[in-house]
Amino acid sequence: MNITQDERAWVAERMNIYDLKYQEIYDELLDHILTAIENRRAEGNTLSTDKLFQQVVDNHFGGCSGIEDLAKNQEKLHRNYVRDIFFKYLKGAFNWRTLIIAVIVLMAASTIVNSKTLHLAFGLSVFVLAVSPVIYAYALLQIT
User: Fold this and answer.
1) I need a labelling partner for 83 at 20 to 30 A (CA). Which of 37, 44, 45, 96 fits?
2) CA-CA distance, 7 to 10, in Å (whole number)?
3) What Cα–Cα distance (Å) separates residue 25 from each residue in 35, 72, 113?
4) Cβ neighbours around 111 below 10 Å, total
């Protein structure tokens, strides 16, 4: 037996009580719970939606704290995955060539005289570098 739209809406609203920060985790848990309720209905269980919901949460996840623990573990796995990608990229971006370039730039920067003209030129160049991608993107949007 399928779940009605009202029952789906009730389950989705009920899921908001859990501290789920990521939409993907919310969607997966919601789908799991709805599928479990549909399966129980197909087996002939005629309990109300709220009772079936609580049974699924208790039996499949160990209650409210089980869902929140699962969500925290998934968040931790996601953060670790992103961190690993970041450090892998960082490791690939820095090598002996970039170290040599950084040392040369630092040595050159230490010899530059501190003046208002230099500050103005530096500020203007930073402004141009910051604004030019926006102008470029705007120009591309006008072409299409």
Assistant:
1) 96
2) 5
3) 15, 10, 55
4) 6
**Domain locations in the chain as residue ranges:** 5-80, 113-144
Return d(Cα 52, Cα 141) in angstroms, integer. 51
HEC string of 19-52? CCCCHHHHHHHHHHHHHHHHHHHHCCCCCCHHHH
Three-class secondary structure of residue 62 per DSSP: coil
Task: Give pTM, 2 decimals.
Answer: 0.58
Query: Distance between CA 60 and CA 25 in Å, rounded?
Result: 15
- Report whether 34 contacts 8 (CB < 8 A): yes
As to burial, measured by CB atoms within 10 angstroms (0-12 exposed, 13-18 middle, 19+ buried), residue 21 is exposed
The stretch 88-96 carries a mean pLDDT of 82
